[in-house]
Amino acid sequence: MALEITQFLLAAQSPDASVRTEAEANLSRFQEQNLPSFLLSLSVELANNEKPIESRRLADLLLRTLGSAATEARHTSAQVIAKIASIEIPKKQWPDLIGSLLTNMTEPDRSASLKQATLETLGYVCEEISHEDLVQDEVNAVLTAVVQGMNLAEHSPEIRLAATKALYNALDFAQTNFENDMERNYIMKMVCETAISKEVEIRQVAFECLVSIASTYYEKLEPYMQAIFELTSNAVKGDEEAVALQAIEFWSSICDEEIELQEYGSAESGDSEPPHSRFIEKALSSLVPMLLETLLKQEEDQDQDDSVWNLSMAGGTCLGLVARTVGDSIVPLVMPFVEANIVKPDWHCREAATYAFGSILEGPTIDKLSPLVHAGLDFLLKEMKDENNHVRDTTAWTLSRIFELLHCPASGFSVISSENIRQILGVLMDSINDTPNVSEKVCGAIYYLAQGYEDAGPSSSLLTPFLTDIITYLIRTADRTDGGDSKLRSSAYETLNEVVRCSNVAETSNIIEHLLPVIMNKLEQTLQLQILSTDDREKQGDLQASLCGVLQVIIQKLSSTDETKPIILREADKIMTLFLRVFACRSSTVHEEAMLAIGALAYACGPNFENYMREFYPYLEMGLQNFEEYQVCSITVGVVGDICRALDDKVLQFCDGIMKLLLNDLGSNELHRSVKPPIFSCFGDIALAIGEHFERYVPYAVPAMQQASQICAKIDVNDEEFMEYGNQLRRSIFEAYSGILQGFKNSKPEVMLPHAAHLLQFIELVFLDRERDESVTKAAVAVMGDLADALGSNTKLLFRDRAFYVEFLGECLQSDDEQLKETATWTQGMIGRVMVS
After folding, report:
1. Residue 519's CB: how many other CB atoms inside 10 A?
2. Which candidate, 175, 164, 280, places its Cα nearest to that of 217?
């Protein structure tokens, strides 16, 4: 931890020699005894604006520690300087830092270790700050020092490694330099030369630079692609795995860029054509064979661990991206490899062939793939009996890909028919008893097979005769004890959920009704488990979470029709009692799943859910106060909305407590910001439920909404994550206003009149934002209609003074989105009625 050293630093500058000597001795002793703490104390001093300028100036000796003989001291100093720089440079409070560091690189008498530490520092600084924080002259000087540091002839491997790492972090700063042909050529020449260094670690970082350049400067790569292809090809074929993986990652990054250009490029670039260089298409005939070769480099036990990342996995992933990039063109390049290897005695060949086939199923058209899949399906089903575990594992994965991508009866195409469904399910039911890793992939195949029948009309009847067997096998799989961790069990229950969710309820309600007590009994059994350790508690929590998840899906399915809802209502008391007992376990995962299931039960029970509120309310309060596990808090907020819709005005007796907690949540700096938008939406739900009684909360809720709208006005458009949050916040504020306005409409609309001008101003601000999300547009248009509808002629002057709404509605009426057009038409009618009143 940092110590208070201000007095020592000031004393070290005293005119009194004895005071100065003693202070210097104290500082030296501190440095020798605990260097990291010493550096941290100096950094705190340097970064604290309230400290005396004299002590902060002396703390600048931190920079000198970069020249220390101790490697650890240099490394720690580099990190500390970068952390301080991240605070000071954006505020222009350390203007000479970059100059001081660059001096270390240009002065001839500076040691190699100092240069290495300086390059390390420059790299960390570039990682910590934004490219907007440096002027172009500083960027040029940094890049020059870094690229020169990579020079083989002049520097040691340690300096070159530090320089290459620094370049990796500085690439974002180089936009202007990449626009200049000469500067770009020099940077690319140094990176390519460094990629063939003797030292493995330097080669690896050089390829990492190429990966970053691929995504940041894609449009500038054309002149270098031939050289890069040779570099990557040689690395993949013969270099160390760490280097080869980065070489493959380069091509994956190129695919990512080209996929994005194909999907979004035209929309984003307006009239100008996106700079699509079609590098993958041009390299295809050489790139695909290179990737196919990597598939044969499997590790013996890679099927036992999904987190393994090796050449084979990277090559297959890249092959899949290539397929998405070029579509049909990849098929004739891959199928000869598949056909040549699928029947070879060596399992490596059979597994590679299957992996290759599974990897190219997304991208090519159905017309191109259909004959191949129809022809290969029989073979794959037989391959589920292969003697080798790897082959069976990859085959099950490939089958799940086929069912995910080529089984969609609702759109008129499926590889599954009445002729082959019995054979397919027979193989899957048999193979679900295989080793845990294969069984888990089989669960995935069943998951997508069931999912294909969602909203499939009469086609979904194909699955009905097999449903009882499928459910039996999945429950048996979930009960297996040989899975090691709980991954197989989770997969089995997730698949069971999907099977129930996508089944044809008219035909399967009887089966699902029989499943309900089975799952309830299993959940009850978890409450009797003996808990002797944290591990036991965790396993109990995971199992309860899975079972609560299944109950949620069953409740939703059976309550979706009037004919089957009584099944849930009959069992509601028992179900709710179980959930309340589960809450007593206090595991957050369970809390989440049980909360979601209670939300579903509230929807099913409607006003009768009031019977459970007294016992449930303490857990609702606990959920709303769970700042640490914020997902629990967020889900609980959603359940409050479900309960409001179920109980309507019967929720009033609990609203004082709920509103107090929600307002506390909004005011908390501890609570994760993602929970705050759902809270505003929840205000709307509460207001709709209790109508005029919401008046008592308006003085607290509306100012909070207005304050949040001011945050929306300050959104940084360059920060994607914050932009997404801003969209959620704006949408939820509009939803809150809509709910409140509709709640007051028939009784006390005048309550919202003082806030109408602020709301219209906020809508106009959103209208002026051309980057707004479509869901925000819909919510803004809807609340404008609600304002006119609820307040009537009282808003005439407001709308007359803010005529932006005419253009806004005109824009929405031109939209391709039918729902938006419908909402805009309704809003236009509401405002029109006001204006002629």
Report:
1. 23
2. 175
